[in-house]
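Write out this protein's structure.
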Amino acid sequence: MVTLAVVLGGIGSIAAWFMSNEGYLPGDAMVRSWSAQKDRAGEAGTADDNWVVGDVAVRSKDDAVTGYGIAAGQDGKKLWEYVPPGRGEICGTAEHAGTGAVLVARGAAGGDVAGLPGAGCTTILALDAKDGRELWKEEAKPAKDAFGDAVPGSAPTLDARGDLAVVAQDRRRPEPDAQGNPVRQNGKSDDVTLRGLDLRTGELRWTAELPDRCGPQSVSLGEKRVFAVLSCDAGGRDKREVSELTVAAFDRATGALAWNAPIDDRRPLDPKTAVGIESVDPLVLSVGAAPDNPATSNPSASEAGVFVPFDANGRPGPVIDASRDKGVINAGDRMQTAVAGDRLYALSGYWQKGNHDIVVAFDLKTGEQVWSEEMDNPAPALAVLDGRVTVLNEWSTQAEAITTVVELDPDDGEELDERHFRDEVPGPVGGMYAHDGRLITASQGGGAPFTAYERW
């Protein structure tokens, strides 16, 4: 009888382990609530983006912008779809959504003119998140230089939050500077612009006065300020010795310049350097070379770069190195980092007979590592949701199927919950949201654009 009890106990343990890992054990599972209709197949591009605006999840791809209902009873139902007319396509998106609307850019197929990237991305439009109707649009002709040639990389950069839309554009042609670096040199006054518009009407609220010989390369909206990474040519009123990248803050209400600061306070930052705005409240930049395809490539330690926080007056804080003692943080992938309060949370990946990831937390005020927690399996995505560091995990170091979600305490990294998905999460994951007690994941490329899960 004792032997039989031991055998039955072993069988029960194996069954429980199997049920837990497959998402069939109550209290240990995540079950799919709904999945939006599968999207057209395609690879992720510059227009591939997603937002949750109230009770609508919005997906952008190069061929369409689509809204899905996520309120109770809607179960991811397609509510609307905006398709660019003719042979046009979506060629740019705002990082954030505003109140009840999303901001995108539309252009000719490929967003190019005469094969020059970004030259044909010329129309900006705001779409109502509830029904997809066009609230307003602003059209412009492709940027051309003094010789009548199209200017590459002149597509606008956008952002929206609350009732404000921000449009930044640098239409100067890149030319070699004294050091041979391709920089955007001084042009006409209207070649560089940074404007604030009413998100619902498109009415102009302000036009910022940019620092001399500087043009915006990226822009992001905070609660009180607008932040922009600027490419500044040598010379001018500021008497710069060489061209460099800077970061500037503008008043959100008036567009007035608050400050313009060097990104590297030791030496001018090469204009070719990849700089991303990781966060705006507080301001954190990622600085360094980016992989060719951030969605699928991992940077080497030599190109990993650094994270630079700034205080409210534009003073840089302690630099955080993306190359760790064990692993590298891929700042080029939006799902690898998150900023909440005075902490930066990131996934540090390394290879050792397969992919591995460590969740690391940094104090932005000191630059010091606060805690780290190694995941049992590779982690393709991280976000801070409902006050918890939420991490998706794959099945194993040799498989990419996303099967587990782990929640960590943001203060000390203690594991608060671990649950297993009954159904594999569609990937690659391009967004994670908490909505009415459910976890919503957004996938890139083809497949279901949004999927909702609930605890069971």
